[in-house]
Design a protein that fits this description.
Blueprint: E1 3-4, E2 10-14, E3 39-47, H1 55-62, H2 78-81, E4 89-95, H3 116-124, E5 127-135, H4 143-158, E6 163-166, E7 171-173, H5 175-185, H6 191-194, E8 196-202, E9 205-211, E10 221-223, H7 231-245, E11 254-259, E12 262-269, E13 277-282
Antiparallel strand pairs: 1-13, 2-10, 2-13, 3-5, 3-6, 4-5, 6-7, 8-9, 11-12, 12-13
Helix pairs in contact: 1-4, 4-5
Length: 285
């Protein structure tokens, strides 16, 4: 028999996109129909000027001129290069002179904390390059994530970028930090690089939410309001769930996560739309 988690059973809701992009993310569901597939990856690369690097320069930097090699092999090959001509890819330059509101750091979610150099870079940016991939059809692999990451890295170097913002995972990077992570990973599709678990404060504590599952067409996870002293435990459990489901086509009915000497079961009840209820229980030892 399962014993309920002593801190209280956790109910996790699955569903909403970030407030910034929710309007474009989901269509209405017909009664009895499954949730439609939706995958979304996007980076904003803040630039000091008002020009994008040329496509030829970008392709060269991502392919033959890519410095992030593993055993001498470039991480971006022919399969990724095909995304340049994919209709699901959108690359655009957003000018500060026409869209000043999207350059305000105070509009980031509270868990997004720019460093002083990042704030300086954001203040001095005259534009940002938007690199976005959206698919409403199931994906065969994760090449789009590899392409987007190395495109962001290349644009930052070629355009002397100051900040890279992962829109879906809601992470800010300096270009140097972003490049170092790509070097350390060896594969930009790594779940720990592509996702995050964030904590949003509330009146009674906070809410833990995943960011980045949407990149592979899965719903995000978000706990109900919880006590602040549960933050470390819940974050670790959600990180464990992310790693288990990252390569799956859909969320499973349950996931088992070990945290130190305790074993937790996360039971997931999917819904046609809106939040899915996920109950977390500590298993007997």
């Amino acid at each position: 028999m399962l014993s309920a988690l002593t801190i209280n059973p956790l109910t996790v809701s699955v569903g909403c996109l970030s407030a910034l992009l929710s309007a474009a993310s989901f269509s209405l569901f017909g009664k009895g129909r499954p949730r439609p597939f939706f995958a979304h990856g996007e980076y904003w690369i803040y630039l000091p000027g008002e020009e994008m690097p040329s496509q030829d320069a970008l392709m060269h930097r991502m392919l033959r001129g890519n410095p992030h090699r593993n055993a001498g092999k470039t991480p971006v090959g022919k399969n990724e290069a095909l995304i340049f001509s994919d209709v699901r890819l959108h690359i655009a330059l957003v000018l500060r002179s026409r869209n000043a509101h999207v350059f305000r750091p105070d509009l980031f979610s509270e868990h997004v904390e720019p460093t002083a150099p990042m704030l300086e870079g954001l203040a001095g940016a005259k534009s940002f390059a938007k690199v976005r991939f959206i698919s409403e059809e199931p994906l065969k692999d994760m090449r789009h994530l590899r392409f987007l990451a190395y495109a962001a890295d290349a644009i930052a170097e070629l355009g002397n970028g100051s900040v890279i913002f992962d829109v879906v995972a809601e992470k800010l990077y300096s270009p140097a930090e972003f490049g170092e992570k790509l070097d350390a990973l060896g594969d930009a599709t790594d779940a720990d690089f592509q996702t995050d678990v964030v904590w949003s404060r509330s009146a009674a504590g906070g809410i833990a939410e995943t960011r980045g599952l949407e990149k592979v067409g899965l719903p995000e996870l978000a706990t109900e309001e919880m006590n602040t002293d549960q933050r470390v435990l819940v974050t670790a459990i959600l990180e464990g769930v992310i790693r288990q489901v990252w390569t799956l086509d859909t969320l499973p009915p349950a996931a088992d996560v070990n945290y130190f000497d305790d074993h937790y079961r996360v039971e997931i009840k999917q819904t046609r739309k809106g939040p899915a209820k996920v109950t977390l229980m500590r298993m007997p030892s």
